[in-house]
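INFO  loader      accepted 1 record
INFO  loader      residues=194
INFO  predictor   begin
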Amino acid sequence: MTVLCIVRHGQTDWNAEGKLQGSTDIPLNMNGVKQAELCAAYLNQDKWDIILTSPLSRAKKTAEIIQNQVGVPLKVMEDFTERHFGKAEGMTPEERQQHFPDKNYTDMETVEELTPRLQEGLMRISREYPNQKVLLVAHGAVIHAILAANALDAELFNQIRLENACLNNMTFKEDKWSIKDYNVIHHLQESEEK
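INFO  predictor   done
INFO  writer      dumping tokens
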């Protein structure tokens, strides 16, 4: 059985402002760095074999912060780059509503294009890291699409807002991926209460 924990990257200024990032390369802000450190401390309680990451800096920096504590190799996988949202990237929710009320953004990567790219990436993980424990640092739309493609109820994942630095756990056995849990954020909340 292959164990996969998909980590959403820490917060960026665009996240805080509600701007759509997509494939625009926006760095972590200070809160995002702190979230990545909290992830690292939590994930370091377990043993992992490898960290995989999207090449975009907000994911890669999150992965590097985790790697500093977890101490396993890190590899970039282009398959998990965030979905391209075309002309809507950089727009606030209000701007998107004004320009694209149907959410059909000009030059956007479609779900039909995104899902096969992600499923191929997951199959590569199952082939290259059988029976290993894998961390994957990725993005909100990527994680949504992965969960929806491997869920019994895909619609459920269209209604959930994935938090920055949340954990989403899956396993691969008997030739299929299964979702264990998703949008796990207790590792972030515990530290806020202290």
